[in-house]
Amino acid sequence: MKTKAFQKVYTKIENITKATCTIKAEGVTNEEMAYVDNRPAQVVKINRENVTLQIFPGTQGIATNAEVVFAGKPPTLKVSEELRGRFFNAYGEPIDGGASVEGEEREIGGPSANPVRRKQPSELIATGIAGIDLNNTLVTGQKIPFFADPDQPFNQVMADVALRAKADIIVLGGMGMSNDDYLYYKAVFDNAGALDRIISFINTTEDAPVERLLVPDMCLTAAEYFAQEKQMKVLVLLTDMTLFADALSIVSNRMDQIPSKDSMPGSLYSDLAKIYEKAVQFPEGGSITIIAVTTLSGGDITHAIPDNTGYITEGQLYLRRDTDISKVIIDPFRSLSRLKQLVIGKKTREDHPQLMNTCVRLYADAANAKTKLENGFDLTDYDKRCLDYAKEYSKELLAIDINIDVDKMLNTGWEILGKYFSQDEVGIKKEIMDTYWKGE
Q1: Cβ atoms of 316 and 153 closer than 8 Å
Q2: Which of the four pLDDT bands, split at 50, 70 and 90, describes residue 439?
Q3: To the nearest whole number, what is the mean pLDDT of the chain?
Q4: What is the pLDDT of residue 352?
Q5: pLDDT class for 6, splitting at 50, 70, 90?
Q6: Cα–Cα distance between 77 and 110 in angstroms, integer?
């Protein structure tokens, strides 16, 4: 990095840890960018004249007389239409071989939208995945995580959502992503001819873990530009927020802060909320919807990361492998979209709410029948039909590889109900049944 006129330059480092260094400096602001021995860093703590810098690539090999140059501003991103179809690193620098982006320079990590500038979410955002659109319908301006075990194909699901979602712009933030996953996303988007509406900020396993902390703010700065300035419907996909939180923990521990639950920093809730609260529906029509992956350690939902996430977000989507059909499904019991009532039956067909509830109720009856079978009890004819229904329901509607529109999902649901149950067993209002029932 070349030193520019009027930049503050220091050459005496007071203290060095594994991730940070401390110097005496004046006129420095919190979150300001700096370069320590040409390595990117950021101000994370100011105590009078003592300034602590978080050095993203680590401090190994840095001498106490290394040159420290302050940039005079927080991290920034240049925003314009040129962002479309591009891949960037955590600093907003191109990693796809293309030229640097020209545009308006904006600070990342700013405040979320003022509540008086928000509108209650009321627009359906269809993903094409039946397990989401039918049972856990998403709304523009919503924030919702996928909870998944590390071995589940959440990157495949996120790529599918990116390609199928009815959104104007998709912003992908990859944190701790393997090179294989990065190349997978790139190939999928390219092959689908969808690169022109996708913007990606990628931190791979070969990059410094602490750099992951910049990725969500880079994504959301780009999203805010298109949602506010262009009134576009923007979908932000963040994966994996567990690795983001691990990076927070790394910095916290190396700064000798006292850890909270599960070795996470005490600021975890605020750090996550600062990201998720950027989800918004603007009155002018633009919106930011956030879908994030949170991987679970051994399926532990009580861990601090999913626990705090659940308090902040408006529901959750669970991925689960269904052994009966040997496919990964969106679990209808543990998944929830708290905002779906704003659109189902209003922006979708009138039969949507009742059909959704009935399908899940009968799926629960199948789960009870399965428990009876496993415990050696005799099954009734109704139990057997429930088990057959559950397999077809999982295969045709809950599996993550089902890509159909909402009307087709509803029609499929009616066909499956009519195949295994009578009208009395289904128990839906007569006026709805008269219009949509497909049984004998």
Answers
A1: no
A2: low
A3: 90
A4: 96
A5: low
A6: 12
Distance between CA atoms of residues 303 and 254, nearest Å: 21
The segment(s) of the chain belonging to CATH 3.40.50.12240 are: 76-342
State how far Cα 25 lies from the chain centre: 38
* Domain 76-342, CATH number (from 3.10.180.10, 3.40.50.12240, 3.40.50.300, 2.40.128.460): 3.40.50.12240
CATH 2.40.30.20 domain locations along the chain? 9-70
CA dihedral in degrees (366, 367, 369, 375; nearest 10)?
A: 160
Q: What is the mean pLDDT of residues 234-259?
A: 86
- Are the CB atoms for 337 and 314 separated by under 8 Å? yes
Asked if residue 56 lies in contact with residue 211, where contact means CB atoms within 8 angstroms, the answer is: yes
Given a cut of 80, whether residue 28 has pLDDT beyond it is yes
- How far apart CA 374 and CA 351 sit, in angstroms, is 35
Q: Which CATH class is domain 9-70?
A: mainly beta
What pLDDT digit, counting tens, does each position of 371-383 carry? Answer: 999 998 999 999 9
Q: The sheet that has 39-47: what strands, in order across it?
A: 9-10, 68-70, 33-36, 39-47, 50-55, 20-24, 13-16
Residue 3 has pLDDT above 70, yes or no: no
Picking from 425, 385, 327, the residue whose alpha carbon sits closest to that of residue 130 is 327
β pairing state of 169-177 and 233-239 = parallel
Query: Quick one: which of 60, 68, 58, 55 has its CA closest to 24?
Result: 68
pLDDT digits (tens, 9 = 90+) for 361-413: 999 999 999 999 999 899 999 999 999 999 999 999 999 988 899 999 999 99
Query: Helix axis angle, 268-276 relative to 241-254, nearest 10°?
Result: 140
| Crossing angle between the packed helical segments 381-393 and 406-420, to the nearest 10 degrees | 160
Amino acid letter for position 53: L
Q: Which two tokens stand for residue 426?
A: 């289904």
From residue 323, give the alpha-carbon distance in Å to each of 34, 328, 329, 331, 391: 52, 9, 10, 12, 10
Nearest to 326 by CA among 412, 413, 399, 385: 399
Give the span between the Cα atoms of 239 and 167, in whole angstroms: 18
